[in-house]
Design a protein that fits this description.
Elements (H helix, E strand, L loop, with lengths): L3 E2 L2 H21 L5 E7 L3 H16 L3 E7 L5 H13 L5 E4 L9 H7 L11 H9 L7 H12 L8 E5 L6 H8 L9 E5 L6 H5 L4 E4 L17 E4 L3 E4 L7 E4 L4 H4 L5 E2 L6 H20 L5
Parallel strand pairs: 1-11, 2-3, 2-4, 5-6, 5-7, 7-8, 8-11
Antiparallel strand pairs: 9-10
Bound molecules: guanine (GUN).
Guanine (GUN) binds next to strand 4.
Length: 296
Amino acid sequence: MAAKIIKGTEVAAQIREELKERVKRLKEKGITPGLGVVLVGQDPASVSYVTAKAKGAEEIGMFEQTINLPADASEEEVLRTVDRLNRDPRFHGVLVQLPLPKHVNTEKVINFISPEKDVDAFHPVNQGKLLRGEPCPLPCTPHGVQQLLVRSGFDPGGKHVVICGRSNIVGKPLAAMLMQKKKGANATVTVVHTGTKDMAYFTRQADIVVAAMGAPKAITADMIREGAVVIDVGVNRVEDPTAAKGFRLVGDCDFEAIKEKAAAITPVPGGVGPMTVTMLLMNTVEAAEREAGLIP
Ligand code: GUN
């Protein structure tokens, strides 16, 4: 039977409607949630991500400002900009778009973001809290994956989730999140990566496979158990002369073949992507709600 296609665009739209209401309630209390974005240079993919964040924020009634520094801005200039946004009460969330130019120390910049305003949840304090199961902003892509699963009727509780990829942005924090003894988590988690001898041995045992390796179509149908749920986090640009932009986006999974075997699968684009921005907006609204005393 053909798989259910998990439409991230629709789930994201539903969450954004909920966020609109929360923004309205905050505005009634005289608070407009604000997001400050620092973009260094004009990398095309980064510009497109930042544009999506700004547009999303404005659509739900938030305040958003992007500070675009030149590609040759010094590390000190980047740090000074982060410091200014940290101190500015109009911003409840502050993020620095990655990757940064090579002459800027990414770790130093991330460590400089105020943990209370760290809506990407990249700061080591927030990563530590996540691992320990303490309240903290949740990393956007992992939280998006979790929400997609739960809201599509595939709660990870008690399931074997195999995560392919161990990045600091997706694989590692998703593993930490899904292993917690909490609602929407409580899964048995296996993480496979480039050091794994036989990746397919593990993925074939999974109830849920999350592909987050950044390798186009690396997960093939023979690696998936009949009836498994497959979440594709990959966003890979592959050359396509027939496409208007000269490239098209493909995920880490062989979508066409897997959809004949899996119970459900996310498409690329239109799967996890729209969820990531939505969870960023949610973190910013939540930071504003915390300031307003609406949540602890
Ligand atoms: N670059 C790629 N993904 C992300 C993200 O989620 N946040 C930031 N700040 N930069 C990114």
